[in-house]
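Q: How would the structure tokens look for this protein?
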Amino acid sequence: MAFSISIGSNGFFDQQLQINAFQEIVDAQFVFETFADLFPTKKVIAANGANSAILDTTIPANAIVDEYHVCVKAARADYTTASLAGELRQSGSSPLEVVIDFGKMLTVNAIRIPYIVSNYHAYSWLGSKFDLANDVRTSFSLPRADGRSSEDQVAYAFSQEIRTERLLLVFPDSIGFDTVKDNLELSLPDLPSDLAITINGGAPVWQYQGMVQPGSSAEISTEEWNTKGELFVSLAAPLQSLAGDPTRNVSLPLNIELNSKTPGDIGIEFYSRSLRLLHRLTFDGEQELKVNFAMEGKIPLGLNSPGINGSTPRLLGIQLTLAAEFPLERAIPAVGALANSTSQLVLGNGKAACVRLDNIDKLAQISGIRIPLSTSSSRAETRVVLWKGDQFAPSEAIEAGVSDPQSWGDKGGREEGGDSEQWLVFNFAKPIEHTDTDTFWVAVIVERGEVSWKLANSSSGEEYPVRLGAPAGPWRALPTIFSVNTNLGPVSGRLHVLGIAAEISPLAPLQLSLDTNNDTIDVTPSDAGENVQLTIGNPGESTNPGGTPLNKAELSIISRAVGNLTLSKVNVITEEITV
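A: Here is the predicted structure in token form.
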């Protein structure tokens, strides 16, 4: 189901349809969170070396993610828990033999354990066996300082750095395997390498190949690592793929994990974000609005920012999808000047009027004229005739530019009698070719009865000027009472020119604009739909001229063509609210 209206001579016209933003799928709720609550960071292990770090946070499900930066840290760790660096297993018990299988080549140059061990051994892996001929342990241990607890770690540096896939450590019988497994730490001097960030356990959304190379600057940037091994990483694109649902005003949990192939001092923290929020609009409960343009015209839609916990966020823009199949014929202007209350021409009985066709440069052919007329006669009949001329007056009637007549009283014609104004279409038998050098006028000829044609006010009298005369001419200007600085003032004719634009310079059937700025967008929708976005306010503006936030606007949709238009997925865009 969809909410429908009709745009036409007797239908919905130039009235504002008011629509409000609210959530259709779930109740409209907004979670107020402080930034401290939003972005807690936790390390995976308590040791200072790690393979990964996690940032647990949230993001609104209806967010447009313009910017989202995290700060990644990947530096050399002092020590890393051995059970994190590799797999520990006991290979002998007297003395205790512990094998650490790294699963990859790692550099090791020291161990740390909460015991003073006078006699231990360390051997690297040769590919098929341990190198038992080369013990890399030091001949001494670091002495314990006075007052040091037996729980404190004691470091033992190797006699040389070794790069190995496995490490064999031999300890005296006084140390048990569980003690080693729970407390042993390794010094791994290699920098973190082959980093990757995942979100909620998915595929990597960011990767860094190779070993991290600290830069020379202390400043953190998005281009290169700083001296501390820190880098800003943008997650805007992957987070946008999770968010952007205008029907859900809830918070999405995020588990952002940084992983490193080589253990190190690994960290990931929130740095900054810039979000906008989407809110789905409905039309009397329906998510589609069907508009029947029985003639060219305009539909204004009132847009209001949704209220969220007593706050009204600032409107930033609107998104919508337009679907239609319009014919090639266009109308210029699609929306003309309104009739004034004092000036109208009564035509007939040998009296005719002629008006210049302005602003039709984009029409390569003229197929008809739409003009608003009224009559009290039950048998009135009218037609129009195209003339060529210059900017001041018509000079020659075009033989092929004579339209079919419109009759009020004939069967199939207009409604009989009545003073209400009706927009009548006068089609030509064949389209009339038009070039940029042509100046066309159209004469309104009443062949039976009398008809009235209301005129519009004109600032200068230079737009759509009107001439009077007999049906065959000559044509003269209006009386001087319709001049500038007179009580009545200058007037202009009211009509729409129908025609077809040149293929090399097409004229879009739709024009969209907002009352908050002067920007307009031409749209040629297809039956499959065309996505459109408009910005509320000029760039950098956040308030109305009076200083109040922009929390309401009017969207105008002007159609230059006759046809059916469907609006769907209409979303207002607001700023994010944080407290």
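DSSP finds four helices and 37 strands in the chain.

The helical segments are 35-38, 82-85, 177-183, 236-242.

Upvote if useful.
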